[in-house]
Design goal:
globular, mainly beta
Length: about 110
């Protein structure tokens, strides 16, 4: 489970709300998978049941996606790649940094 108190590690919806179109951000992830990608911000899209950051992305040594790709916001207001289960970070976290174990204790 993600530790919502890992302050400053994860991007939140607020980080993208005032971002200008065309802003380039390097995003990292390390919960279920580990990697880095470039994000080119376009806009925020609010749906009935979800919140999306819309833009384009490219993984290392890959081509830029078409515009319209999106990131989700999860239940604790962290912006995530994929289905919403992989929060994106400002820098590459150490393995398990910012995550709880099965007993709600922080994992080292």
């Amino acid at each position: 489970m993600i530790n919502p108190n890992a302050e400053g590690l994860y991007y939140s919806t607020a980080d993208f709300e005032n971002m200008k179109k065309g802003t380039v951000v390097i995003l990292h992830y390390n919960l279920y998978n580990k990697g880095t990608f470039v994000w080119i911000h376009s806009h925020i899209q609010l749906g009935a049941n979800d919140w999306r950051v819309v833009g384009q992305f490219a993984y290392p040594n890959d081509v830029l996606s078409p515009e319209g790709a999106y990131l989700y916001a999860n239940q604790v207001d962290q912006v995530c790649r994929g289905s919403g289960a992989e929060p994106v970070c400002r820098e590459m976290p150490a393995d398990h940094e910012g995550y709880y174990g099965e007993n709600d204790e922080e994992v080292d």
